[in-house]
Prior knowledge:
By secondary structure, the chain is α+β, with helices and mostly antiparallel strands.
Amino acid sequence: xxxxxxxxxxxxxxxxxxxxxxxxxxxxxxxxxxxxxxxxxxxxxxxxxxxxxxxxxxxxxxxxxxxxxxxxxxxxxxxxxxxxxxxxxxxxxxxxxxxxxxxxxxxxxxxxxxxxxxxxxxxxxxxxxxxxxxxxxxxxxxxxxxxxxxxxxxxxxxxxxxxxxxxxxxxxxxxxxxxxxxxxxxxxxxxxxxxxxxxxxxxxxxxxxxxxxxxxxxxxxxxxxxxxxxxxxxxxxxxxxxxxxxxxxxxxxxxxxxxxxxxxxxxxxxxxxxxxxxxxxxxxxxxxxxxxxxxxxxxxxxxxxxxxxxxxxxxxx
Length: 317
């Protein structure tokens, strides 16, 4: 069996500094959520949705400026299905009078438009969405814990769930700090961050398990360090290409998905960091050993029977 290799950079040598950094970020995020709170969008607070059909594709920025000039403050404007269909979501309590006022205001610019529908979402529905979204995040983390615990080992399950919670808290903390609007698109981004970060963590965990089984000489510190080195190129390439797409979405995708792209950008950066340091740190803290990851001997096999080796394709990852 191969011995541990000397690595040019000692990732685990900075694990204590990374631990302090992560703990401070999490504490700051929790404090911000407690003091400032999230700036919930109309999906959660309630409001009015008014849909218009234009004869020609309108300029959304002009619509926003028009509504701002007449005194409306909390609203969002976006296309809905087609370039000529516009959905305006407002914080004001909805009724037919509000829809008529908005229609009259937009008609003053000379544009040909037709009021398609007007709907009001009450605060009770918003509260239900808050509860359901929080429950959804908790269920996602619980499922990850069960899956990774069965796929690898229970210590790996803990070392996978804690980084995911770490990533979600930091994204929420940043949104609380800058008071960016938190709506259903950001919630969807948080769930996507959980999936992205988990994928990255699983790749590193798979290599750690493989190296623990085949490397006979070396401390857990050295084996984890080597595993990170063997996967770091894949991690950087994946994160880099993902960030290119997300930056394009942020700068070119329009206001409707700006916060969605922002949440994912923060999540990808933090998730890449946590898959290297937070997850590996947790394994070190829990004292993962070679015995934890050995393949059980097959029933009826003799003492000299060889252990089951990982598939060849894992060695090429």
